Amino acid sequence: MTLAKKLTFAVCLTALVAGAAVTSAQARDLTVVSWGGNYQDAQKKIYFEPFAKKTGKPVLDESWDGGIGVIAAKIKAGVPNWDVVQVESEELALGCADGYYEKLDWSKLGGKDAYLPAAVNDCGVGAIVWSTALSYDADRLKEAPQSWADFWDTKKFPGKRGFRRGPKYALEFALMADGVPPADVYKVLSTPEGIDRAFKKLEELKPNIVWWESGAQPLQLLASGEVVMTTAYNGRISGINKTEGKNFKVVWPGSLYAIDSWVIMKGSPNKDAAMDFIAFVNVPENQVKLPEYIAYGLPNKAAAAAVPTNLQKDLPTAPENLAGSVPLDADFWIDNIEELNKRFNAWLAK
Amino acid sequence: MKAAILRERSGALLLVSPVIIFLAVFFLWPLWTMVTAAFVDDAVSKVLPRTAASIVSWNGQGVPSEAAHKALVQDLKAASDEQALGEAVRRLNSAASGFRTLLGRTIPAVKAAPDPAQVDLLAVDPRWNDTRFWVALKEAMPPYTDRNILAAVDMKRDASGGIVAEAADASAHRLIMLRTLLVAAMVTIACAVIGLPYAMLTASVTGWKRSALLLAVVLPLWTSLLVRTAAWFILLQNEGLINRALQAIGLIDSPLPLIFNRLGVVIAMTHVLLPFMVLPIYSVILGIPRNLMSAAQSMGAGPVRAFWRVLLPLSLPGLLSGSLLVFMVAIGYYITPALLGGANDQMISSVIAFYATGTANWGLAGALGLILLVVTTVLYAIYGRFSTPQQVPGA
To answer: What pTM was computed for the model?
Structure first.
């Protein structure tokens, strides 16, 4: 090769690479991020794949474990590589205040009145209503535990207990076990004495607690008999009963429920497609399919009303299940999570 | 002549430039980012410049003057960059829990008011009467801070600016850091105790036996860490293989507590990190002349003495570098302690991860990382001092 030829070759190559880089940045497929596991498998079947078929464009899906730091890092990096994300209520509140999400076009979603009031936000629309509740294996326990007080009663129910590691949920449940009525939990918890009281109650159970971190762990702990009771996400419990023929039960009174929402990342290059996707998910005929796979409540009123009655009873939104349960107070946790987590770690390490 | 040297030099520089660029991009730059994240503290003063100017003169008693209130309202009214404002709020809430909802209520009220001069903060939220929030605001104004690095070692500044320890039940970073080092040390010792004989055995056999032994060490490296941890979970649990087998042969009556405690963590981490110990020792032992052991024996040393005086000292460099590798990797462990450990086995990287991804408090995450780096560097320096190669006669 002569020098001139070499040079031309190099220039062509550079142009090619640069061109590829530019097109790949522009034409990234719509990327949807959710919570993985059997939940995301269901979403793939009823949302992602039908949407891809309808629009003729592929949908990429990824999973994550939450955390506002992850969202913040993606926004700070410039153009985010995610478009639509399913977030918990704290991430919704924090990210919306900090300008990490696009504002939703509610006219495409059928108006705000079509949803539960708690599922409506400028930046996000509710995707599911889900509960964290006391769960146990009915094949192993002869007598059914009824409440958090039973969860703490190691004489009546000997054995270990599973708990999500972290102050969130643990402090609320401890207060209920200590006799605080569910409706007053956050009122008590927002005083220093209330927090001391919760930690003191947790201290009683500390030697008997196995701490878990990811949502699949409590199922494994229950299935292996490692613990007799555990806190767990209600959808996963009904999911494993269905797929593996287990007889796990959920105790609804004293459970905490929360709403997960769909958001669009600020600066998403696929903003319009992302909005169309969220609209597609919220068409009642599409959303109503979800409880067949996993027992989460639906924030779209029309969809919720259309759920077959035999599936209704397992949903956190069923009136009899809602009766004794408490909504998770996202405001309390966005204010206090750092301080309480520090204290929780110090308490664990003692 | 000079030009020739210069050309030669620049040629050499050009050749090593990939290394320099690599180090700068993947080592120095992240390190620098971490240090600045830990010490630079301009998130609040950038967004609230008028408040910064006005609150300086406040003595920290009661509530600042009306002028400071006005300045804050003006700043909030003028703040147009949502993300910058968000960072300021995060920084303030980290110093005083509750600032998040306080500003969450105040900002919309200020933005909605037609005339900022008319806004009365106390009417918007009575918490503006609380000294705590104003102190946090004042302390957030200087452009640099040591609060992150102090918090990383469970210290803080009190009202008069002196450094004091945090309340014992409020923070446990130091304890978790010590525990991390302790677990890493336990794993290193376990790896050394298993790895040294294993490497010697591997080096002493030949042919398919050696290949089989080496494969047994290297194969786990190709399996995902998560899979190996999950496998240990299945083996170690109360109704797992090990406890079942022991109960079946009547050695124990009730299951041994092998999981959700330090033992489970050390067992699994030792298994995962064993290759990093075996391979360096093995490569060093391969280089030791085989006739040295026979020579020692011919001079009257028994097998134990020959091992103690000849083989062990000669394989020491391998043992030391293996230990260093295992220890360094073990310090950063996160998944295995989370899945197999109990309440007391959480290691420092999971705390760092909480601040980095959970609450986006990158300052504290950076400070904890920095402390970890300093501790490791000090240990490395100690190691370097003790492991300077001693000239072994004949080696």
So the answer is: 0.84
Q: Which residues of chain A fall below pLDDT 70?
A: 1-27
Q: State residue B390's pLDDT score.
A: 54
Domain boundaries, chain B: 43-139, 173-386
Cβ distance B41 to B145 under 8 Å? yes
Supply the CATH classification number for the domain A30-129+259-322: 3.40.190.10
Domain with CATH 3.40.190.10 in chain A: 30-129+259-322, 131-256+325-349
Contact B179 A349 (CB under 8 A): yes
Nearest to B171 among A67, A94, A346 (CB): A346
Give the closest residue to A219 by CA, choosing from A204, A205, A236.
A236
pLDDT in tens, B212-262: 999 999 888 888 888 998 899 889 988 888 999 999 998 888 888 888 899
Q: Is B359 on the interface with A (CB under 8 A)?
A: yes
CB contact under 8 A, B86 and A98: yes
- B170/A contact by beta carbon, under 8 A: yes
Q: What is the overall mean pLDDT for chain B? A: 89
* CA dist., res. B232 & res. B336, Å (int): 10
Among chain B residues, the shortest Cα distance to A346 is held by B172
Check CB contact of B101 with chain A, cutoff 8 Å: yes
Neighboring chain A residues of B233 at a CB cutoff of 8 Å: 220
CATH class, domain B173-386, is mainly alpha
Range name among A281-285, B68-72, B199-203, B306-310 with the lowest pLDDT average: B306-310
In three-state form (DSSP H/G/I as H, E/B as E, the rest C), the secondary structure along chain A is: CCHHHHHHHHHHHHHHHHHHHHHHHHCCCEEEEECCHHHHHHHHHHHHHHHHHHHCCCEEEEECCCCHHHHHHHHHCCCCCCCEEEECHHHHHHHHHCCCECCCCHHHHCCHHHECHHHECCCEEEEEEEEEEEEEECCCCCCCCCCHHHHHCCCCCCCCEEEECCHHHHHHHHHHHCCCCHHHHHHHHCCHHHHHHHHHHHHHHHHHEEEECCCCHHHHHHHCCCCCEEEEEHHHHHHHHHHHCCCEEEEEEEEEEEEEEEEEECCCCCHHHHHHHHHHHCCHHHHCCHHHHCCCECCEHHHHHCCCHHHHCCCCCCHHHHCCCEECCHHHHHHHHHHHHHHHHHHHHC
CATH superfamily placement of domain A131-256+325-349: Periplasmic binding protein-like II (3.40.190.10)
A343 to B171: CB separation less than 8 angstroms, yes or no: yes
